[in-house]
Amino acid sequence: MLEFEATNPDLRGEMTIQTTLVDADGGTDVIVVHERIPDGVSAADNELGTRMALDNLAALVESGR
After folding, report:
1. pTM of the predicted model, to two decimals?
2. Rounded distance between C-alpha atoms, residue 51 and residue 45, angstroms
3. What is the C-alpha to C-alpha distance for residues 17 and 1, in angstroms, rounded to an integer?
4. Which of 19, 20, 52, 55 would bridge 31 by S-S if both were Cys, CB 3.0 to 4.6 A apart?
5. What is the distance between the alpha carbons of residues 22 and 48, in angstroms, rounded to a whole number?
6. Tell me: the pLDDT tens digits for 11-51?
7. How many angstroms separate the CA atoms of 15 and 3, rounded?
8. Are β-strands 2-4 and 27-35 bridged in parallel, bridged antiparallel, or unpaired?
């Protein structure tokens, strides 16, 4: 669970993110489920942010750090 702190009340609230890693041929599938997204966060913005975070994670893992 994470909690958003913002001056805009539509962006405040607690959101739960469940991440599941599944073995896949040649790698790992990552399944991310969001629950209780604050009303002020659009589905498109939420998806974009998740994709950006996963891209950053992939770059870190692939760099071997």
Report:
1. 0.76
2. 10
3. 6
4. 20
5. 22
6. 999 999 999 999 999 988 999 999 999 999 999 999 999 99
7. 6
8. unpaired
User: And the tokens for 13?
Assistant: 């609230």
Dist. CA 35–CA 2, nearest whole Å: 11
Residue by residue, what is the 3-state secondary structure of 14-53?
Answer: EEEEEEEEEEECCEEEEEEEEECCCCCCCHHHHHHHHHHH
Geometric angle at alpha carbon 12, from 51 and 2, rounded to 5°: 55
Residue matched to tokens 């998806």 = 47
Stated length of the chain: 65
What's the number of domains the chain is made of? Answer: 1
Q: Closest Cα to residue 13, out of 56, 44, 46?
A: 46
